[in-house]
Structures are given as structure tokens and as C-alpha cells.
Amino acid sequence: MPTVRTNDVETYYERRGEGPPIVFVHASIVDHAMWDRQADAIADDYTTVVYDVRGHGRTGGSAEPEYTMDLFAADLHALVTALDLDRPVLCGLSMGGMIAQTYAAAHPDRLAGLILADTFTPRILTRGEWFLRRVALNALIPPVRLVGYERVERANVWLTERLFGGVSGDYGRIERLREAGPKMTTDEFAKVIRSMTRFHGASIDLSAITVPTLVLYGENELPFVKRHAAELAVRLSNVEIDEVPHAGHASNLDTPDYFTAAVRAFLARTRPIDGADASDGNSGTGSR
Questions:
Q1: What are the pLDDT digits (tens) for 18-72?
Q2: Chain centroid to CA 104: how far?
Q3: Cα 129–chain centre separation
Q4: What average pLDDT does range 124-146 have in this prediction?
Q5: Is 158 exposed, middle or buried (CB count within 10 Å of its CB: 0-12, 13-18, 19+)?
Q6: What is the number of other CB atoms lying within 10 angstroms of the CB of residue 172?
Q7: What is the DSSP secondary structure assignment for residue 183, as one 8-state letter?
Q8: For 283, which of 17, 155, 253, 265 could close a Cys bridge (C-beta 3.0–4.6 Å)?
Q9: Is the pLDDT of residue 280 over 50?
Q10: Mean per-residue pLDDT for 99-109?
């Protein structure tokens, strides 16, 4: 089982292919396998790295009393350094996008590009979003201790789908990913959820992120996630934005072919393979 020491944990990772590198950072309460479709498809021309974020999957938990995006980003930096990855493109979805932003702002010279999918940015929080992220998310923790996170999240997904039809996409794919991977402990679940609820107050300097950036979001995403995508488009200096058709919050799982094509086209523009013309990377994705 391939692992590298990242601070105080052994981080599980999988590496495929040869060529310019891209590192995928998964969403919360799943693991690296959410990126298998993209990593396999792109590995014919690129080095793809997927890994399990601290608290998840085969990396598992740690003795740290609380988690933050800064800690997750420090783990990512240790992984990139240990694997000797030269200016990778970084792709993160949801919580993975929070980690990717944190890393990119701290190490802008270590990246060739950044892909942020279905994610959030700090410093904007409406009253409704404050309730969802500070109250509703934290409220999941006590019932998880009683009946487990799988049951609680199914109920949460059911309720969210009643309010915002289509946002959960093909939720069965998420459930199958969880069934195939190691289970998360309740204590780790609580630390991960709390790290996300505090992200809105993070002191990330988005102006430090100058690498080319692609922002993706699902057509059926939550309205406030779409607002975060628009905010990123305003606050980042070198950015394009694209809506993934027929997708909810896990857009890479809901519409994988479109998502993979968008990633491949972005890679062709930012880290072209030897002998390729960067101008050939147009996949037809919409930008604005």
C-alpha cells in the first residue's frame, strides 16, 4: 500500500501514468476513489495522483484534536514534496477545493494551474448560508454519534433534494464509493465537518493565486455554491468558469465525460505534453 509521511500521518496515495503531473483532492466523507474515472482517463498523457485526505480512507485519522484547511494544505504540500512533483496542476472538489485554494495561496510558485469544482471561498456568507454551514452542518454531529454518518447523510440528502431538486445528482455513486472504502470514525467525521464550517473565516489571500484557474460547478448546484463560483471568477486574476451540464454537487461523478474533457482541455493549455500545441486544448467548454 503506497504511503508517504505527511507531517504526523501516513498518507495513502495512488500514482498513474507519465507526463506533467495533476493532483486530485477529494470531497469530504469520501476518499480518493471519487477521482478514479478522471485519473484513469488522463493518465495516458499525464501523471495523475489521487490520495486520501487526513481523516479519510486508507490514510485514516490522527491524534490532532481539530482539523483545519491549513493542516490539510500542509499535508498536501508534504505529499507534493515527497513525490517530487514539478509544478502540478491541482484539482479539488467541494472540501477538496477549499484545501486547493489554501495550498495555492500559500504556494503559488509551486503550481502550474488550479481547478476548483463545486466549492466555496472564504469571506462571503449570507444569512441563509450561515445557517446551513454553521448551524445545520454542526447539527449533524450529535445524531451521527447515535446512528452513524451514513444514515444521517441519507436523511440530509433527502431533505436537500426536496428543497433543491437535482443537487444530489446520482447519490447512489457516492454510496457505492463509501461501501467500497474504509469507514470513517465518528470523531474523524466531527473534526472534518468542523473544519468546513470554519472555512468562511479563513484568511486566504486570493490575490496571491495568479496561476491559470478553472472554476467548475454543476448545473443543478446549490444557489449559494454558484454564487461562490461567481465570486471566485471576480476575485481571481486569471480565471475561467464553466457550468457542468446535468450535474449536481459532485459534478465529476454526475457528468464524468464532460468534466474529464474540461480538465483535459485545461491541462493542454497549462501543462501541454511534449510536442503538443497548447492552443489545441479547446474542448468547447464555456468560459466567461
A1: 999 999 999 999 999 999 999 999 999 999 999 999 999 999 999 999 999 999 9
A2: 13
A3: 19
A4: 64
A5: exposed
A6: 10
A7: P
A8: 265
A9: no
A10: 96
**AA letter at 68:** T
The full length of the chain comes to: 288
Residues 6+ apart with CB under 8 A from 269: 212, 278, 281
List C-alpha distances in Å: 20 to 89, 269, 274: 8, 12, 9
What is the pTM for the complete model shown? Answer: 0.89
Segment holding 105, helix H or strand E: helix 95-106
Expressed in angstroms, the distance from the first to the final Cα of the chain is 42
CATH 3.40.50.1820 applies to domain 3-280: yes
Sheet strands (E) in 124-211: none
Q: Are strands 9-16 and 3-6 parallel, antiparallel or unpaired?
A: antiparallel
